[in-house]
Amino acid sequence: MKPRHFTVAITGASGVIYGLKVVEELLRGDSRVSLLVSEAGFAVLRQECGLDLAGTPGEILDGVRSHLGLPGERLSYYDLNDLFAPIASGSAAPDAMLVVPCSMGTLSRISSGNSGNLLERAADVMLKEGRPLVLAPRETPFNAIHLEHMLKLARLGVRIVPAMPGFYHDPETIEDLVDFVAGKVLDAVQVEHTLFRRWGSRP
Fold first, then answer.
1. CA pair distance 88, 151, nearest whole angstrom
2. Residue 46 CA to its chain's centroid (Å)
3. pLDDT of 117
């Protein structure tokens, strides 16, 4: 069976660790991942995770692989200016796209169809091809503009999975909370995982 292909985009919202966890879990399975990182996403990766990614796309890819501690043969990285990347075309669209975390700026541009870079174009491809698009906004509080954009996208079939960890699984560490959010994102695209204890299951 052909491995599923996902685009994962990390933007400049707080909570980039969620995106890294999603990438890690997809690679631990049998999925293929095309990774995108916004300029602000790189800055937050440095601040929140101590992950300083710079250089050529190949050097950035090596840095992500090293950080995750995985071989990553099924991981690709594309610069946001690379509009010749396969994921920029509906003819090579991945099975789904996950924007984790999703900044309000990115969300608004996707909602407006403003495809100014590869991330926004890849999201537009998901919409026009009718393929799953999942956005994990990390902002609080939401204002009316944020909510209007999310409602517009939800009506188009986009899954909005806010980075809101639950507590019914008795989390003991920050990693437990990260795993919960990453697991809910993966649930939205029907990827099996064991990142958190399901409601009603025994501890």
1. 25
2. 17
3. 97
Q: What is the 8-class DSSP label of residue 157?
A: T
Q: Is residue 202 part of a domain?
A: no
Which segments in the chain show pLDDT lower than 50?
none
Q: How much is the pTM?
A: 0.94
Q: Considering its fold, how many domains does the chain have in total?
A: 1
Q: Are 74 and 32 in contact (CB under 8 A)?
A: yes
CA distances from 26 to 12, 86, 128, 130, 189 (A): 21, 19, 24, 22, 11
Tokens matching residue 92: 């090579």
d(CA 156, CA 158): 6
Q: How far apart are the first and last CA of the chain?
A: 33
Helix axes 104-112, 118-129, angle to 10 degrees: 50
Contact residues for 73 (Cβ-Cβ < 8 A; gap 6+): none
Contacts of 66 (CB under 8 A, 6+ apart): none
- pLDDT given for residue 203 in this prediction: 62
Range(s) of the domain holding residue 85: 5-187
CATH number at residue 152: 3.40.50.1950
Q: Is residue 193 part of a domain?
A: no
Q: What is the pLDDT of residue 72?
A: 73
In the β-sheet with 96-102, what is the strand arrangement from edge to edge? 75-77, 32-37, 5-10, 96-102, 133-137, 159-160
